[in-house]
Amino acid sequence: MSIIVVVGNKGGTGKTTLALNLAAGLLPGGPVVVIDADPQQSAYQWRLVGGDRPGLPAVVAAAHGLEQTITALRETHRHVIVDCPPSIKAPQTEAALRLAEHALIPVQPSPMDLWATTHIARTLERVRPENPSLRAMIVMSQIEPRTTLSRLMPEAAAELDLPVASTALRRRSIHRHCVLEGRTVFQAGRRGSEAAAEIQSLIAEIFADD
Ligand SMILES: Nc1ncnc2c1ncn2[C@@H]1O[C@H](COP(=O)(O)OP(=O)(O)O)[C@@H](O)[C@H]1O
Ligand SMILES: [Mg+2]
């Protein structure tokens, strides 16, 4: 049983994409639900597009009453994944962080985005007295290995107060195609296999110490 929250201070970093693909990657191990805590409801919309396609996780929209929703769903699911709004100060984000075992923070390869994670580290410190076992990790997202910036990111990230996952998620067009079709990369066959392998590797890292 685990509660994983995907948080961040900006839109467009890849939170929803990570939440949904993580859920699909964990699904073979038992029931998984994604709670869409973002009032924009992109995860929920994506799930509507997916319809009854096999291999998709359940998605529940819960921008309000989040704590009760998490507490209820953790009883019946092996993993509860919370897709948070793009603000670390949002009440949903703080509520989810108080209950979670794992927090993932996708960050795009930009120095400014990295610097912005300082605020996230502070929020994590604030909830830590209530939730001392919370483990947080930055996940490099939408990396383009051929660009200098992406190459410099691991070095820059090493300066931060938060650990950085050694699995980085590359920018791959299959992720955008999958959204259109209501799939995750796990339903995209060979076209999605490299992206799916990245997600599996991240899953192994998340649970490495459990
Ligand atoms: N690894 C990736 N490669 C390519 N496109 C991505 C990747 N991750 C996310 N995207 C795209 O970037 C946009 C923002 O992603 P999204 O998951 O909605 O971010 P957030 O939830 O943080 O706002 C979407 O169009 C999504 O398809
Ligand atoms: Mg989102």
Automatic annotation (TrEMBL):
SUPFAM superfamilies: P-loop containing nucleoside triphosphate hydrolases (SSF52540). It comes from the Bacteria. It holds the Pfam family CbiA. It comes from Lamprobacter modestohalophilus. This is Cobyrinic acid a,c-diamide synthase. Residues 4-173 form the CobQ/CobB/MinD/ParA nucleotide binding domain.
